Amino acid sequence: MKLLKARAYFKNITEISPEFLKENGISGLILDIDNTLIGHNVPLPDEKTTNHLRELENAGIKLCVVSNNTYDRVKSFTEKIGVEFFVANALKPRRKGYIEASESMKLALSEIGAAGDQLFTDVLGANLAGCFSIYTKPLHTGGEGFFIALKRIFENPFLPKEELL
Predict the structure, then answer these.
(1) Can you name the CATH fold of 8-157?
(2) pTM (2 decimals)?
(3) What strands lie across the sheet with 62-66, from one edge to the other?
(4) Sequence ranges of the domains in the chain
């Protein structure tokens, strides 16, 4: 069960400060797309999120989107938000996508934080790969599809109480 425990919990991606990352030895941040950067069926992040990504980059944090989505979807998304590195068809929670991100950013896995909204893909994958795992609450949970909704039910016992996030 330790593999399902994130090293840090945040309400959303914009709460992850460059200072927090640097204090934890993190030079690169892996980002999930759906319900981490954008809500379900939302094409692009809001201005606050986009500005925060620029703030992280300006502070010297390398960014890489790692997603189980298709190549075309991930490439298009990262181009629109101005993130250089991405891995599509990552097969999270497998280590494959995290290793590719590490190679793209030219950072060791131990220097990378990985943020996402699902324990069984994002947190588990980050922990298996040796990254600093960061859980962010999902931006939107309605209309995600049967399997994601089912996973969320099984995740609940492993999540901290609401007031801790």
Answers:
(1) Rossmann fold (3.40.50)
(2) 0.89
(3) 8-10, 132-136, 112-116, 28-31, 62-66, 85-87
(4) 8-157
